[in-house]
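Translate sequence into structure tokens.
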Amino acid sequence: MNIVLFGPPGAGKGTQANNMVKRFSLFKVSTGDLLREEIKNNTNLGTKIKSTVNAGILVSDDIIDDLMTKVLRDKKFYNRLIFDGYPRNLNQAENLDFLTKKYNQKISCVLNLNVDKESIIKRVLGRQICTNCGLIFNEYFNPSTKKNHHCDLKFLDKRPDDNEKIIISRFETYLNKTLPILDFYKEQNLLHQINGMAKIDQIFEEIRGIIGPLEA
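Result follows.
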């Protein structure tokens, strides 16, 4: 099965995607990770991506489509993917639809984590990342403790773009661009709305109830 996971910045997509990877033996696909990997490997596409990013220009849909083509034609990932934060616009959604059919695959379901703006602001402002081990915590909802984190507290840091003005802008941009994509999947009867305001384990239980039967 292939799953598309949506949710505004700070909704907990990464946490739930990681849970699904472990529980259902899937592979998470993030466009940001794919872009960084191409740059790191100094591929021709990576060089193109780097020059585009350095110029302050958004990476084109064509480049994203090329990256997704490489993933979907890889037999290792055949029908075992979670698309985290992709597609980002209707053109990308239509292309993903085309590519999955081209490589004899399909989108099994689309999950949308619903979280209101006030909660998103609090989640993102409280987000802390350990620069030593990479674990993510939240000083309000999931603080670092001696039980769940073995690194020194001095390693906890915040992302430079985790400020309220940027959060609100990203949230509104997400809503404006994502609504047409959700309608696209709703028309295909693939869309499932998830209560992203619940506790992490409760959210995952709801997700398991949806995608568990798809394994059969």
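Note: The chain has two domains: 3-116+165-215, 127-161.
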